Amino acid sequence: MPSRYSLDTLLGRGGLGEVWSATHASGRRVAFKRLRSDRPGDAAAGATLLREASATARLQHPAVVQVLDLGRDEGRPFVVMELARGALREGAAASWSEARDLLLDLLSALAHVHARGVVHLDLKPGNLLRFDAAPRLRISDFGAAALAREPEHERWLGTLGYAAPEQLLGEPVGPTADLYALGCLATLLLTGRRPFPELEGEDLFEAHIGWAPAPLRPCFEVPPEVEGWVARLLEKDPSRRFQRAAEAARALGRSLPCPAGRRPPPLGAEVAALRVAGLLGRPVEQEALLLQLGRPGHLRVRGPSGSGRSALARWLLTEAHEHDLARSALVELDDDSPTSAAVGRTLAALLDLRGLDPPEARQQLLLRVACAEHLSARDRPALLGLLGLASAPLLQPAHLAGLLLRTLREVAGERPLVVVLDGLERQPDAAEMVAPLVTGGALVVSTVAEDRGGAVGAADLELTLGPLEEHALRALLTERAGLEPRSALKLAERSGGNPLLASQLLSVCLEQGLLEERPDGFALRADAEPRLPADVQAIWQRRIADLVPETQRPALGLAAVLGARVDAATWRLLCDQEGLAPTEVQPLLDAGLLQPYPRGFSFAQGLLRTATLALFPDRLPRWHALAAEHAEKPAVRGHHLLAAGRVVDGARDLLAANLPLLRGRHELRASMVLDELDPLPLPPDARAEVARQRAWVAVTRRDPRAVDLARQAVALAADGASSCRALLQLASALTRAGRAEEGDAARRRAAGLARAHGVLDVLREALIGEATVRIRAGELAAAEALLREAEASCGPSHDLLNARAWLALKSGQLPGAARAARRVLGLPSPSPLARYSALTYLAEVARLEDRPEEAEAHLVDAIEVAEAAGLRGSAWVARASLGILAAQRGATARARALLEGAVEVFSADHRRAVALICRAWLAGVHRGAERAGTVATLSAELEELELHDAELVEALLWSSAQAAEHAETLRALAERARPTCPAGS
Question: Which CATH fold topology does 5-82 show?
């Protein structure tokens, strides 16, 4: 096998191949598929395996397993894919909501697959893999699809329990065969059993061909229309089923009631519906486009070069095609050929004439026109001329529009019409096509580059694309390009929200060898400094020369130094200090290159700012030093100082600015700053602080290297203050690693040093941390003493008040807990984590005081705070609390969905204690055999963990009251889990 992979565990064998878990040389875990060991030299099987991989690699959909690598090693073919947690289990979903979401994900994937001419032919639980990240279910193993394309293949393909009648009979198959299999899967998800579960072999074969399945008996409440929906999927006659995955999805997504509290996005409008570059981060615009489908009119998409105008319009065309929402045509206008040539290319595509030699194309065209309903003999000369098959007079735009409309109607049937005029500013006369197209019933979507000018007429609705939000561009680079998060953030910031510039910078990185592979994706090398390609930079510098007089260009350079957003007052002050004439910005505003904002202006184009800075390389250090003198924020000042060559001062500012980022769990940004500082010559105290912050990031990310990094920080500490900070970080790392006693010892050492050196913030944090340990151990009196010392030494803080709220809850003092939590929310500027904690304490007080609606409202607010701050684990703790509320109120389906989701997340995050508490609540929610399994798992895990926790006791006692048949076992587990009460507590 290739030396870059090492095999770990055999996961399974199929007809062609065997699948192993493997590790890439970079450390990334993958699934490695190769020919079975008993047929290594089977050339036909090897070719089929690679065909399967090639087919899968072309399917770029979130719910289709990704192929990462493929090839041959010593003649033996192999395929490398993303590694799943396992396959879909044979059984019912947790709830109607979960079943519906899984089915919609699968239908979205099938729409994508079928639109590319692929039919899977073997959809079954074993080929639907589970992942932690959404979508949680993804289609794998296109081996049957690959075999079906082999002309010599004769026997039926698939798995008997899920195969369509036409598959079993060896008849021609199409997308409807996959929809039959989906009907079988829907039956499994709803009832826990596939159709005809008691039959095997010949009997099962006969049942699929001719027997009606039994009526649905779902395991949970479902809308009444569901049974008819499943029955239509399971029709024996393919023509009586849904004909397209999109049609089935529309019926499921639009006709059936939505689960309480949830609203599905419009079909295909999810941000990750298609992997189209430049499209992420445009959900509002996507929604607006989808809402216009079926409504004649003119919608214009306007934006600067590289903003993703064409990608957005093409997304609509693909969406309309895949989901059968409309029939569409793309007219690609360019500078080098007239509008008629662009329309001719579109007509060739609509009539399936591309790639034919002229005699064959002419013959096919004449046949199409002779049999046409909307085209006539009068259209033949114009069509032949536009397709380059005969000479013809130049046609006016209105005539072109009519011909395009009739051709489109010929292939559309009764579906709505959509025409995209891409790049209207390149051929302004094409604007004259809009009115006749709209009059003929089409939706016209035109795209216009706002920075190229040109009169293009009015529109009924206009969408203006600004820069992509940073998080969306970062997602584009991580999900589409495979960059690791910090490198993605660096390129996203460098490109100023412009997808095209981000793509160009990425290309530069590839060309110059600036990327290296790591376990979490491709990363920029530490010394990498991607720069704009010279030809692109030259184009933008010519545009600057056209719009800005030479004497005013230095002032524009000074503005670019200040950042993407420029405060006009500061800029004019610096211009005065430098003796520069301020740039007349109105022409740049008129051209859309700058955008106004209340205090000044911003660079709408990251390309413009980058090209401007490149004009003045010798002046940049002085300008950055000048900007640093007027910068209010430490992070801004620090970057200016680094650029000015004042490394030590800049590093200290940046390290200080990193602390709020780390407290707010923004470790990606903090890591980028540390990456920037790593190669610089820093004094010992700054180097020690870099090491400490590295350890902080590692603790937050649950990185197994956290303890080693924290020990390095302790070793590098240059004085008492930095030593106590590093020791406190070591305590956090040790505690998170499950080494509680060592963590307590490090925390006490940190507190002692902090007292000795008067480092009050560390003293407060150490005392609160020690109090937290005491609360968790049930030593409430000791915790109270520690919190009093913290308040006396350092005064109140968000963390201290939250610790008081928790202590009050554990002591049964509910009013005191509520007062402390409300004080947190009343103090200025609580961090997201502090707000989240206070809201969850208020929710717990409300739950214990039997005010469930108020408790739920606080938990929903807490989830919003956590998700906005990227605190995924915290959000799931709040969801688990919602599940507990639902269980206590008798909302069994909701409780089950939330608690099972929480168990899955916490188990994956190795938070076994929290997962165990959730499972204890599930023991009272589950029924029958499932409950028995949950109780057995609880017994085994509690024996292994030896967890003593009051919350676990509450869950077990509640479940014992719900589960009479297991009450004795659950009460015994509760006694085993009961915390011991130390003296004085």
Answer: Phosphorylase Kinase; domain 1 (3.30.200)
| Kind plus residue range of the DSSP H or E element containing 880 | helix 872-888
The predicted-structure confidence for 467-490, as pLDDT tens digits, reads as follows 777 767 777 777 666 788 778 887
* Whether pLDDT at 445 is above 90: yes
Residue 120 to residue 196: CA distance in whole angstroms: 22
Contact indicator for 381, 394 with CB cutoff of 8 Å:
no
Which pair of structure tokens corresponds to residue 328?
Answer: 């569409």
For the 86-218 domain, the top CATH level (class) is mainly alpha
- The CATH code for residues 796-870 is 1.25.40
Determine what percent of the chain falls in helix, strand and coil, rounding each to the nearest 5.
60, 10, 30
For residue range 415-439, what is the model confidence (pLDDT) as tens digits? 789 999 999 888 888 999 999 999 9
| Residue 224, number of CB atoms within 10 A of its CB | 8
The tokens of 562 are what? 């200040």
DSSP codes joined into one string, 99-151: HHHHHHHHHHHHHHHHHTT------SGGGEEE-SSSSSEEE---HHHHHHTST
CB 515 within 8 A of CB 481: no
To which H or E segment does residue 888 belong?
A: helix 872-888
pLDDT band at 653 (very low <50, low <70, confident <90, very high): very high
- Radius of gyration of the CA atoms of the chain, in A: 32
* Burial zone of 264 (CB within 10 Å; 0-12 exposed, 13-18 middle, 19+ buried): middle
Q: Which two tokens stand for residue 145?
A: 């699809």
Residue with tokens 């350092």: 794
Rounded CA separation 528/515 (Å): 8
- CATH number of the 283-464 domain: 3.40.50
User: How are strands ordered across the β-sheet holding 442-449?
Assistant: 327-332, 417-422, 442-449, 297-303, 461-464
**Which CATH entry fits the domain spanning 693-788: 1.10.10, 1.25.40, 3.30.420, 1.10.760?**
1.25.40
Residue with the two structure tokens 């849904």: 242
Closest among 199, 218, 219 to 209, alpha carbons compared: 199
Is 122 a catalytic site residue?
Answer: yes
Return all residues near 442 (Cβ < 8 A) that are at least 6 apart.
Answer: 296, 405, 408, 417, 418, 419
For 492, the enclosing helix (H) or strand (E) is helix 485-495
Q: Which candidate, 340, 311, 338, 316, places its Cα nearest to that of 329? A: 316
Q: Which of 122, 451, 744, 949 is catalytic?
A: 122
Rounded to whole angstroms, the Cα distance separating 192 from 215 reads: 13
DSSP string, 373-411: SS--GGGHHHHHHHTTSS--PPPPHHHHHHHHHHHHHHH
**Nearest alpha carbon to residue 112 among 345, 268, 300:** 268
Distance CA 314, CA 330 (A): 8
Angstrom distance (rounded) from CA 78 to CA 50: 7
Stretch 553-572: mean pLDDT, rounded?
92
Q: Give the model confidence (pLDDT) of 687-721 as tens digits.
A: 999 999 999 998 887 788 889 999 999 999 988 88
